[in-house]
């Protein structure tokens, strides 16, 4: 009791020096909190972004993840509706799942024959209402702009509609029709060579009754999508473009075509059995992934299904890379701050020891053991740490509140829309307590060296010290 | 006199230490016996070895050779921890520069040795207040050392030395930093306290005022005991 009492008075013996030390700890705490909160915002924001679009888990036919890009149709999941039922109606899984929906990923060629423009594309077919539901997922209470939710312009009824990337719209010369920005660049010069084929290929579309429909009155820009069916034959469907949607990565933006799953199935499977290349599963909480994975594995084994599943960190490898990068950056900053605190406290405590040599001699002569001296100076380091870390936490809360309410907008990497800059210190439950405890322990560790020096003093030399 | 009648026994004690690279022999074979419950004074000129001798008696230093027995304990056999506990239990110090702890009040300074002895709070309070009353500082108990005069600080130091009822009180030139009037009052106070507590007091001084009260005087010169006077 008395040790802390005396320590408290001692640290204010030279109040200016102690205040500077406490401020150094405070600044370190604020830096770690702010950067940690910023990193948490990016990490949880990225996670929310990915989970909203790709779910937590995706189930594929075995081999699809590694080889499916070569021939997606060959890896289609038959009777996928039964599989979705199996998953969503499983007593152990149903409470953990918010959405389980089919997707169809494939590659093809899109043509705007009105303007003699065509290019390859990466297509994705989904159930619009399910995607809308998925995009409402916000487990970390991120401030997602409403425009993001409103961006879904497909509906379940619009089975011929689609969305393409802005870059793709540019290359297919749909700038005017779709109000695409940045279309002022030089267009590619037309070749003198005659195109290989100029005629409308829609006769290739497998007869499914749609060809019997008279010329469409749909005013939306039309694209003809060509792809190989599961059987290997070419097939064509018509997609009417509702809108463009900028993708975060240019390579994707130049090739992106999203559509209703039934349109994608018509293109890939024609009159054959309609399949999906994957089942997207979105969970209520990310922390449920290990449990759900284990259950899915068991479920697939029991039903002898040759399926595999990947979580979002496997599907989007960049997620892990970004987290590793941010973690390294955070560790670097935290280390620098820690070293500053370490040297500041060592300096303060060493000065304190040197100023109190005769006092150390006196209390040792009165009967205080070496360990008592050690404890006395460590207690002073502890108090400096506690005061600095606590003040740092308070200042951080004020700073975070100020920044978060300032309405600063920014576009994180891989994002399409700007989002509010939020410092989410308390989203990570370990950040604030970990920072506080880390600084206090560092302060204690920093004071051990000067304290040992004080404890080792020879009493008669200390008493003789002027 | 038998052994138990001596607070301190020194047998051919030598003490050497290094001053820079030069070896200095501060005590050159001192043998003496200091009786208990008496007002003893060690006199000698500056550099004669008084403080070195008191350091040995206070168990804050050990001899280079010879034997120092304090209250029957050979101090060279004590570990650092044991020596600390021995000092806390048996020895009170009064320093020339008062050496009070600046961040503690007069009350807390006096209470400090009792904390080291782990005395219960109630007993600490009673003993501390009584001792402050005895040295005439009851009204100054909340004052910090820098709010007290030199004489008052030395009174606090006396109270601190005596509060735990030590077997031996060592005072290294306690009046050296005081004016003669204040010095006299401090000597009178210590003489009175010694008479009341029957504690063994050992002074180092060259002050004639101190010697007037001394029951036993040891004169030391150039590290050697030159003369021993008194009962």
Low-confidence stretches of chain B: none
| Whole-number count of domains of chain B | 1
- Supply the CATH superfamily name of chain B: P-loop containing nucleotide triphosphate hydrolases
Distance between the termini of chain A: 30 Å
Write the CATH architecture name of chain B.
3-Layer(aba) Sandwich
What's the SSE pattern of chain A?
Answer: HHEHHEEHHEHHEEHEHEHEHHHHEEHH
Strand content of chain A: 15-25%
- CATH topology name of chain B, in short, is Rossmann fold
Tally of individual helices of chain B:
7
Please give the radius of gyration of chain B in angstroms: 17 Å
Q: Would you tell me the overall average pLDDT of chain B?
A: 90
Please, what is the average pLDDT of chain A? 87
End-to-end distance of chain B, in Å?
12 Å
- Beta-strand segment tally of chain A: 11
Describe the structure in your own words.
The complex is a heterodimer of chains A (466) and B (231). With 466 residues, chain A is of the alpha+beta class. Chain A is built from 17 helices and eleven strands. Chain A folds into two domains: 2-46 and 320-464, no CATH class; 63-305, no CATH class. In chain A, strands 2-3-7-4-6-5 form a six-stranded mixed barrel. In chain A, a hairpin with an 8-residue loop joins strand 10 (409-410) and strand 11 (419-420). In chain A, helix 2 (15-54) crosses helix 15. Chain B is an alpha/beta fold. Chain B has one domain: Rossmann fold. Chain B contains seven helices and ten strands. In chain B, helix 4 (121-134) packs across helix 5 (150-162). The model of chain B has no long low-confidence stretch (mean pLDDT 90). The chains are: A alpha+beta (466), B alpha/beta (231). Chain A binds chain B through residues 2, 6, 9-10, 13, 358-359, 361-370, 372, 459-460, 463, and chain B through 55, 58, 60-61, 80-81, 84-89, 91, 93, 95, 97, 99, 101-104, 112-113, 115-117, 160.
């Amino acid at each position: 009791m008395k040790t802390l009492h005396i320590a408290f008075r001692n640290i204010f013996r030279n109040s200016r020096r102690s205040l500077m030390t406490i401020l150094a700890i405070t600044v370190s705490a604020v830096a770690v909190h702010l950067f940690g909160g910023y990193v948490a915002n990016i990490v949880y924001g990225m996670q929310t972004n990915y989970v909203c679009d790709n779910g937590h888990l995706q189930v594929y036919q075995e081999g699809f993840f590694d080889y499916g890009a070569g021939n997606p149709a060959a890896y289609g999941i038959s009777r996928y509706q039964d599989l979705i039922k199996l998953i969503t109606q499983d007593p152990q899984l149903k409470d953990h799942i918010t959405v389980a929906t089919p997707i169809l990923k494939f590659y093809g060629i899109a043509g705007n024959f009105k303007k003699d423009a065509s290019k390859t594309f990466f297509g994705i077919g989904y159930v619009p209402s399910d995607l809308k539901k998925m995009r409402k997922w916000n487990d970390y209470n991120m401030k997602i702009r409403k425009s993001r939710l409103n961006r879904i312009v497909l509906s379940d009824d619009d089975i011929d509609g689609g969305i393409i990337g802005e870059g793709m719209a540019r290359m297919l010369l749909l700038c005017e029709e779709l109000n695409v920005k940045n279309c002022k660049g030089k267009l590619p010069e037309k070749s003198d060579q005659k195109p290989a084929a100029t005629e409308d290929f829609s006769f290739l579309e497998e007869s499914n009754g749609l060809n019997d429909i008279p010329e469409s009155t749909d005013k939306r820009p039309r694209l003809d999508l060509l792809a190989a069916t599961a059987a290997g034959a070419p097939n064509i469907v018509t997609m009417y473009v509702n809108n463009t949607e900028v993708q975060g990565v240019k390579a994707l933006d130049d090739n992106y075509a999203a559509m209703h799953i039934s349109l994608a199935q018509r293109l890939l499977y024609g009159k054959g059995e309609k399949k999906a290349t994957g089942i997207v599963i979105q969970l209520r909480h990310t922390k449920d992934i290990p449990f759900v994975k284990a259950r899915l594995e068991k479920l697939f084994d029991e039903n002898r299904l040759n399926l595999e599943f990947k979580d979002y960190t496997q599907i989007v490898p960049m997620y892990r890379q970004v987290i590793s990068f941010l973690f390294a950056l955070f560790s670097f900053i935290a280390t620098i701050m820690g070293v500053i605190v370490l040297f500041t406290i060592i300096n303060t405590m060493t000065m304190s020891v040197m100023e109190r040599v005769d006092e150390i001699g006196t209390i040792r002569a009165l009967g205080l053991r070496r360990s008592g001296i050690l404890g006395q100076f460590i207690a002073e380091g502890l108090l400096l740490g506690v005061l600095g870390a606590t003040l740092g936490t308070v200042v951080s809360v004020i700073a975070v509140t100020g920044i978060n309410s300032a309405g600063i907008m920014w576009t994180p990497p891989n994002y399409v829309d700007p989002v509010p800059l939020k410092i989410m210190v308390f989203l990570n439950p370990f950040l604030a307590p970990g920072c506080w405890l880390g600084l206090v322990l560092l302060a204690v560790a920093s004071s051990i060296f000067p304290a040992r020096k004080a404890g080792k003093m020879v009493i008669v030399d200390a008493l003789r010290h002027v | 006199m038998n052994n138990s009648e001596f607070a301190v026994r020194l047998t051919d004690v030598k003490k050497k230490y290094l001053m820079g690279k030069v070896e200095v022999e501060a005590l050159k074979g001192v043998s003496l016996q200091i009786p208990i419950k008496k007002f003893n004074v060690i006199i000698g000129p500056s550099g004669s070895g008084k403080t070195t001798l008191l350091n040995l008696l206070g168990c804050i230093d050990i001899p280079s050779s010879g034997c120092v027995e304090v209250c029957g304990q050979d101090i060279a056999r004590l570990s650092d921890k044991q020596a600390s506990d021995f000092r806390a239990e048996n020895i009170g110090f009064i320093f020339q520069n008062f050496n009070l702890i600046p961040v503690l009040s007069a009350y807390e300074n006096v209470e400090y040795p009792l904390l080291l002895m782990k005395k219960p709070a109630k007993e600490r309070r009673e003993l501390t207040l009584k001792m402050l009353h005895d040295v005439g500082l009851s009204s100054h108990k909340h004052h910090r050392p820098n709010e007290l005069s030199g004489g008052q600080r030395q009174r606090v130091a006396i109270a601190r030395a005596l509060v735990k009822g030590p077997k031996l009180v060592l005072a290294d030139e306690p009046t050296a930093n005081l004016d003669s009037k204040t010095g006299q009052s401090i000597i009178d106070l210590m003489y009175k306290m010694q008479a009341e507590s029957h504690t063994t007091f050992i002074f180092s001084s060259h002050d004639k005022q101190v010697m007037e009260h001394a029951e036993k005087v040891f004169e030391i010169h150039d590290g050697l005991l030159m003369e021993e006077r008194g009962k």
